[in-house]
Structure formats: C-alpha cells, structure tokens
Amino acid sequence: MTDAQLYETLRKIQEPLGYFFNRKRDKVFDLLNALLFNRSRYGYMCCPCRLASGNREWDRDIICPCSYREEDVREYGRCY
Q1: Is 48 strand, coil or helix?
Q2: Which of 20, 64, 70, 71 is deepest in the core (most CB within 10 A)?
Q3: 63 has which bridge partners?
Q4: Whole-angstrom distance, CA of residue 23 vs CA of residue 68
C-alpha cells in the first residue's frame, strides 16, 4: 500500500466519523509514511507519535487510531 492509498482509505473511513486530515499535506504524508514504516517494522500501524514496544498486545492502545485520539482531539483540536 502506498501513502496515497492509505490516505484515501483512511479519509473514506474517518470523514464520516467527523475526523479530517490536516490541511498541511506534507505533514500528513510524513505521518502516513511513518505509519506504513511501523507496519513493515512491527506488523501493525502503531502511532508514530508514541513509542512502540514491538509487542502487539502491549501496543494495542497506540495502534492507529490510538486510544488517545479522542481525548487529544477534544483537548488540542487534533491528535497528538
């Protein structure tokens, strides 16, 4: 999967839920590339903003979309 494919997939899933990508597309694609890198490294797309252990069970809370997203969006207007 490419970063553009991931963008479209996530956009279609998240926009109906009220979540939208940042307008700074270069930043968005940096994060999408980091998610894809983490998927190739760990086998799952853990949040690039958090430290992953490499153990899927331990990292369940930081698999994108992570458990902290809603709270971060409420507090900061965006995820961490």
Answers
A1: coil
A2: 64
A3: 46
A4: 21
Bridge partners of 46, per DSSP, are 63
Percentages helix, strand, coil for the chain (3-state, rounded to 5) are 55, 0, 40
The C-alpha atoms of residue 76 and residue 8 are separated, in whole angstroms, by 24
The Cβ of residue 64 has, within 10 Å, a number of other Cβ atoms equal to 20
pTM (2 decimals)?
Answer: 0.89
Q: What is the pLDDT along the chain (80 residues), one digit of tens a residue?
A: 999 999 999 999 999 999 999 999 999 999 999 999 999 999 999 999 899 999 999 999 999 999 999 999 999 998 87
